[in-house]
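## retry 2 of 3
previous attempt timed out at serialization; input unchanged, resubmitting
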Amino acid sequence: MAFTHWESLKKIDARIHILPDAVHKANPDSDDVWLCTDIHGYCAMMDDLHIEKAVIMPLNDPWLMSMEFTIDAVHRNLRDMKNASPGKFYAFADIDTRNTPAQSAEAIRKALDGYGLDGIKIHPNNTRCALDDEYNAPIFALAQQRNIPVAIHSYPNSAEAVCAAKRIGRILERYPGLRLIVAHMGGAQWEELLDVACFVDMSAILPDYVRAFGIAKTEEILRSFGADRLLFATDYPDNRHLPPVEIYAAYFDILNRMDFTEEEAVKIAYTNMRDIMTASK
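## retry succeeded, writing output
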């Protein structure tokens, strides 16, 4: 029987964006979606949305995540946001390619061990460094060694894009067992990920698929990965077509119109991401 109450289901949103208070205070005239990246406002929403926890993803852009513009300041801000709301957030470590590869790996190690962060985020478009570039090698090696999840932005616009799906396959050939979360399901290149041993999150892309293909085909795409690999995620508050206030309602409406069973819905909404994070501890 199809489960049609996603709005009341306990969830982990596997991909959101929150900016530190200091960044908000330094930009009081901001009038875009980033106004909604306020931790206090997001916490106030969580109970009504039945979101038990959410994963704060940095942007691989220190100019957005701190007012000191250093990777250590970004990581301290992420730590402080986690600590200010105990039990509500995971936070993934950031990358600043102004640093050497060794320096980036060391900064991530400090973020994990010293600041209690939970994983690594790589956004190749923002770093301007291809996913399978040698720059990322010590970062992937560290993640493999420590069994730490790595979240990868993949919304490519060409076969050679820095975040192209084929590059994800190359990474896993080189680092077998690496626990990868591919954001946005690889966009239009989703089929290339079907045989790749990774999780995929539906952040940002779910409404795009529905606009392009309709509900039935979108469900077919999701089901091609299987409920064990799918992660509920929104990219809140950022979306190509939806204002922040409409994102969660749109996701719930789309998923309620699909034929996932309650058991499948619980995996997608909660237990898959919970198990990813538990395994890394």
